[in-house]
Amino acid sequence: xxxxxxxxxxxxxxxxxxxxxxxxxxxxxxxxxxxxxxxxxxxxxxxxxxxxxxxxxxxxxxxxxxxxxxxxxxxxxxxxxxxxxxxxxxxxxxxxxxxxxxxxxxxxxxxxxxxxxxxxxxxxxxxxxxxxxxxxxxxxxxxxxxxxxxxxxxxxxxxxxxxxxxxxxxxxxxxxxxxxxxxxxxxxxxxxxxxxxxxxxxxxxxxxxxxxxxxxxxxxxxxxxxxxxxxxxxxxxxxxxxxxxxxxxxxxxxxxxxxxxxxxxxxxxxxxxxxxxxxxxxxxxxxxxxxxxxxxxxxxxxxxxxxxxxxxxxxxxxxxxxxxxxxxxxxxxxxxxxxxxxxxxxxxxxx
Length: 351
Ligand SMILES: Cc1ncc(COP(=O)(O)O)c(C=O)c1O
What we know:
InterPro entries: Cys_Synth/Cystath_Beta-Synth, P-phosphate_BS, TrpB-like_PALP, TrpB-like_PALP_sf. This protein is α/β, with parallel strands linked by helices.
């Protein structure tokens, strides 16, 4: 009798141990919470929600993109035991996610970044083990452009160029983000609002949502200096004033990092967007302070910009009741620029 009780106890404890899921980094990406923005909702008389993508393990929605790019590289034989180096041009967030997920899967990263980003982004990448090279902000047609450099080095050294702007695995990863949003709002979402960098997020999310309900509006939030808004609203991307090579680059056009562009990428071209707004830096800075004060949310620059665009969308589409936007990353990556009053004054950015 005593022995059989012992045997049951041992079996039970063995089964319990066997049942603990052995989740690794890649397994805990996504399924982020949706938060109700009470202050903005009460001000507008609408229901406004935000998806907390800063709660991904690499602290941004780029974890989803990076995982998809790495999986694509492995599936297509570009990444493996012999060839384990990923090359990418990044404004920081994708680089952090590629580096951390890469580390967990035995891959290394060589990253090319513009030399005008917030200093903490370089610090984080180097701390996490990425090899980084800073390049001047130049036109995409220039061989020194951060994406061109990454592609060329990958070719020379025989590595994998992840190509977040044109690799469609990026936007495919965000079908899941769209699916989560639809489920979390019980299908009641009327309007989705966010910015575009590579375009992967807004492309995947908009395709999923419009596939579920074609009446859901999708709105682009665009920073100053980007011509994606004009592309959405009038079908024309390039203007003389906005064409790269003529416009002044960061930090003079905008203090927002990671989004806005003056060219059409393969990922962006998959997006289904109804309307675009240009958001002034001053509006984004004020919104960031408002979110800290009223919601306790310390978010990155593009997240604040997204929330300003929600307010503009409320005015444009009075029939919409439920709005969802994205909080892409945390404010901690923006202390030296977006949240730094001295920096803003020095660069004559109103706030
Ligand atoms: C902080 C931040 N917000 C928004 C985006 C836009 O995301 P996507 O590249 O999917 O368009 C990016 C892109 O790098 C980013 O870094």
